[in-house]
Amino acid sequence: MYRLVLAEDHILVREGLKKIIEDFAPLQVVGEVSDGEQLLHFLTKWPVDMVLLDISMPKLSGIEVTREIKKRYPGIKVLILTMHKKREYLSDALAAGADGYLLKEDAAKELLAAIKQIRQGEIYVSPLLSTELANLYARSSRKAAVGYGMETLTPREIEIIKLIAEGKSSKEIAAQLFLSFRTVQNHRTKIMRKLNLKKNTDLVKYAIQMGYTPAITS
Questions:
Q1: What's the confidence (pLDDT) of residue 79?
Q2: What is the pLDDT, as a whole number, of residue 131?
Q3: How far apart are CA 42 and CA 81, in angstroms?
Q4: Could you tell me if residue 218 is inside a domain?
Q5: Which domain holds residue 12?
């Protein structure tokens, strides 16, 4: 079983999430908490594979808790579940180490896909954010990103980064480019080495900063 804990101060939201998750056999909700301090305490007592975490919670924000989780338990995956669409929240969440950022309005249709993608070692970003907010973030960050390792990338590597910016997983990229999953993973590893990046979240942030989205690169 893949163990999840829900950190959300609205009980109706937690119930909705549980209803989606409980019908998917490999997943099991092993705990529910209503604030950040309760979550950190829970993690000292019980083994957990993934945390579903709201940004706006009492006592400690989701961003603060994410940072603390990654410091204490780097193996635990963190999926941010939020109503916040502003690019600053997305950027702060990824910088804190979040493995995914899912808008609550997307949860009904995207939650299981987000969990699956994160379990596979990918970064998940809500479809609405991968276009609208990524474009805004790219425009504001392009100057800072100029010259950031771009000259060292091959055309194929840039093509893969563009697909990453669209929120596609390695499996989806492989299917679209008619490559094997292992080939795409090897490309990702080379890209991260060339750009001196350490985490998948850094690669996603780079892709967003460079404006590699359909609206900008078309």
A1: 95
A2: 63
A3: 19
A4: no
A5: 2-125
